[in-house]
Predict the 3D structure of the following.
Amino acid sequence: MQSNAIVMSYKGAVSGKLLDSIITVAQAKLAEIELKRSVKKRVFGVLVEVLQNIHHHFNNSPLHTKCGSDDSIMFVFAKKEGTYSVTTGNYIADTDIPSLKTRLDEINNMTPEEVKEKYRKILKTGEISPKGGAGLGIIDIARKSGSKLQYEFQQHQDNLSFFSLTVTISA
């Protein structure tokens, strides 16, 4: 773990209380290893947003019970050479992949200024997604990280894939 600069990691079952605990521990570890307040704020914002996405989109779906509790999610928070990375993974229905991929590709094809403008526009217009939120999560992650979002879908079983997302934040 030390050679890969892993600050903390988790793989297993997920619950709201667990995610709250991960956020608390990550915040404490970040306070120990990062001196710059602005960097801490951006990294912590990304950490919270990716974990909230898991809570809102995975934990509250039928996939949560279908996947089994032993390997429902994974989370890795690392620091290496002035860069932080946050990687998360969870199961996703294959039917949800096209819209998520389209959204991620759209955001990755934007400049940082365009990402900020899209974020402001959604806040201003109050758009609500089909899942009941404003759909700001992925946009906010891209905005705070200032980097392209790396993602992958790996087929797991019939109609189910494992979605992994890696976000890099420069210190």
